Amino acid sequence: QVSLVESGGGLVQAGGSLRLSCAASGRTFSNYAMGWFRQAPGKEREFVAAIRWNGGNTYYAEPEKGRFTISGDNTKKTVYLRMNSLKPEDTAVYYCAVRLQGPLGRTESDYDYWGQGTQVTVSS
Asked: Which of 113, 100, 101 shows the shortest CA–CA distance to 22?
């Protein structure tokens, strides 16, 4: 069993930055993949970024490449999503997820455990 807890969301003006955190617990983490997704009101959940827990390989959704950075701290079992140059369309609930086996994925079904999400609101 894996528990994921997101934090760091909030209200920010357009052009601002936020850093989201996802703290993992419950299992020994080795070569898992961690992902960030988001869901805006009235829209489906979409992939944002993913990272290999051991090795640090990363993968981004194309629109976020260059603005968002995913990173991990193995000692803290925490994955981060640094978001710069935020836009109103980045407003969403952001979720982290863990994939126990397999390559970095970009679909919801690739991931095995999910956090509860953290709200990010970007005002214009």
From this structure: 113
* Calpha distance 23→43 (Å, rounded): 26
Q: How does DSSP classify residue 65? A: B
- Any idea which residue has 């407003």 for tokens? 91
**Distance between CA atoms of 103 and 48, rounded to whole angstroms?**
16
Sequence-distant (6+) residues with CB within 8 A of 87 are 14, 122
Q: Using alpha carbons, select from 39, 43, 44, 15 the residue that is nearest to residue 119.
A: 39
* Beta bridge mates, 93: 39, 119
Question: Alpha carbon of 90 to those of 33, 64, 84, 95, 99: distances in Å?
Answer: 23, 10, 11, 13, 24
Dump pLDDT digits (tens) for 75-99. 888 999 999 999 999 999 999 999 9
